[in-house]
Every structure is written in C-alpha cells, then in structure tokens.
Amino acid sequence: MTTAELIKQLFLSFNDKDSETFIKTARDYIEHEKRKKHNLVAKELEKALFSTNSVQNGGKRFKNFLPIPRDTEKGFPLLEIQQFDKSIDSLIVVNEIKVQLEQVVMEFKDSDILATYNLQNKKKILLCGKPGTGKTFSAQIISSILSIPLVYVRFDAIISSYLGETATNLRKVFDYIGSNTWVVLFDEFDVIGKNRDDSHEHGEIKRVVNNFLQMLDNFKGDSIILAATNHQNMLDPAIWRRFDEVIYYELPNENTRQQLLDFYLKPIKMNTDIDTTKAASMTAGFSPADIKMVTEEVMKTAIINSKSHLGQNELICAIEKFIRREKVRNNLMGDK
Ligand SMILES: Nc1ncnc2c1ncn2[C@@H]1O[C@H](COP(=O)(O)OP(=O)(O)OP(=O)(O)O)[C@@H](O)[C@H]1O
Ligand SMILES: [Mg+2]
C-alpha cells in the first residue's frame, strides 16, 4: 500500500473504532517507513504506538519534549521544527557537493564506530554561496535522509531589540538543541555573521556574534548544526575556523543548468523540437531556484492554455521574460 492508502486505512479504522485494524495498519506503516530506511522515524512511531504512557494517561508521552523556546518580550517562537521527505537525487549540484553532504550523513550514521577510534563525526557545517543555489534545500535533504526533524532557526527572529534579550534567546535555542538529536539550520546566518570589525555594526550584534561562536564551540550534543549564508565574504576567519566543513554552492555551469532544466521539465510532455542545450546556454547566471521558477512558469502557461506538449518557442520566451525581469530588478536596486 502507498503512504496515502495506509493513512486512509488508519483514519477509517479510527472512525470505526476498529483497534485491531488500527494497530495492524500502524504496524504496516512502520514497516513501510523501515523499507524507506527511515529507521529513526520507525523507531519513534514504534515507541509512540507501544508506549504505556498513552495520551489518556495524562499526556505523559510528551514529557521528554521541551516546549519550543520563545522570545520573552514578544512571545514569538525562536525556532520551528520541520519534517521533510526529500531525496538527494532532487539536488542538482556538482559532484563535490554531493560527496561532501553524503560524507556528513555517513559520518553521522557511523559516529559510534568513529568514536571507538577517538574520531568525531562532522557536526558543524557552514553552507555558503549565492541565493537560490540549494543551501536551505540541502539542510532539508540531510534531515530527510537521516529521518531526523529539522530545527529551523532564523537569525533575524533571534535578534531582539531589547538589550541582553538576544543572548538569552540564543541560550534558549542552544539549550533546546542540546535536549535531543536534531539537524539544526541557522538560516540567513549572515545577519549576525558580518565582519566583527565593521564599524557600522551595532554593538549588540557584535556581542551576539561572540556569543554564538562561544555557544557553538561549547556545544557538545550529537546534533548536526548547519549555518547558511550568502555573504561568506563578509564572514571573518574566526567564524570559518569554528566549522568542521565548509560547503560552497556555486551558480550552475551550462551542463548543470541543462540537467536542472531537464529535471524540472520532467512533469510535462515536450515537442520534439525542444532543445534544452540551447535553453541552457541562454541561462548563464541563473541559479537553480531561477531555473525552477522559469520551468514552472512555462509549464503552467502550457497547461492553462490546454497545450498537450511544450514547445521550444515557449521555453525560450519564458527565459527571455525572466532575463528582462532580472534586468528591471537590478536597475531598481541600482537606483537605491
Ligand atoms: N541545486 C539545486 N538543485 C535542485 N533544485 C534546487 C537547487 N537549489 C535550489 N533549488 C530549488 O530552489 C529552491 C530554493 O533554494 P534554497 O532555498 O535552497 O536556496 P538557498 O541557497 O537557501 O538561497 P538563499 O541564500 O536565498 O536562502 C529549493 O527549495 C529547490 O526547490
Ligand atoms: Mg536559504
């Protein structure tokens, strides 16, 4: 049965108060997760299904989970727990990046064996490169492959206008991370990671950088901590040294752009005149996210115009339209 069928069966048996079918289906679902190698998810589900602390039992099942930390002054959550089901095959990058990501995953899986040799798996990873090249996406993929939820931390959410509150927020986030094993992403990390000597920086932000680095240094948990930035040039050497691995995402070359076009155009049938080589040569400077956006646009146009097949002309027009749009955007930014 597919995931959807299993879940439907669970709902039906719940409605019918048929606990036997419910448990059987739940077991089938756990097996289904195991076959997908989502062993941690399977373990969690097994625990949830067979736990003696059922929900009726005062909700004790949740006692091991700390509440999501919040900003004391404004009350908003400082992090988000996210779950994904993404495969590394959907990340189209040069081979070096895949090898680096796979190494992080494999070292995590073999951390016990590594420890017997007194070696530590890579836990603190810096992801840098231009916007839309797959940094956030990679964190989601690592979380998916390991079946460990992603703790998503947006740096601008942590920075508080109240003096001293930012450090408290960071402390709360690190305490939370330390309470379990997670894949953690400090996204848009450059908000605070700017060169500490920059005189324009606010004093509070400088303190936060130091604070963050100290907490990163002192962090002894099992979680994998990823930090993403697209202003790596502005990061000072002290930050680089703190990471076990730095993964650099470049804009895709022509060959990779063609792979991206082919990948993202897969859902639609194409005319025989489609030549993604030509399209790839026209998209110099496009990020993978840009290419995704263009292909989605062109597919939607074809679908709403009831075209059964996509033609070369439409693809080229969509690329040209995107290039014009970027020009306008760059000009507007230049005017500022
Ligand atoms: N290398 C890639 N291969 C396939 N799809 C990609 C790739 N990079 C980005 N994408 C697509 O574009 C979307 C946006 O990319 P993502 O959020 O990972 O960019 P980013 O590098 O984090 O950018 P930013 O610096 O702006 O945060 C992804 O969710 C994914 O769908
Ligand atoms: Mg991002």
Automatic annotation (TrEMBL):
Record's keyword terms, sorted: ATP-binding, Nucleotide-binding
Domain of life of the source: Bacteria
Recorded GO MF terms: ATP binding; ATP hydrolysis activity
Domain AAA+ ATPase: 121-253
Pfam families, alphabetized: AAA (PF00004)
SMART domains documented for this protein: AAA
InterPro entries, per database record: 26S_Proteasome_ATPase, AAA+_ATPase, ATPase_AAA_core, P-loop_NTPase
Family as reported in the entry's similarity comment: Belongs to the AAA ATPase family.
Name recorded for this polypeptide: ATPase AAA
Taxonomic placement: Bacteria, Pseudomonadati, Pseudomonadota, Gammaproteobacteria, Thiotrichales
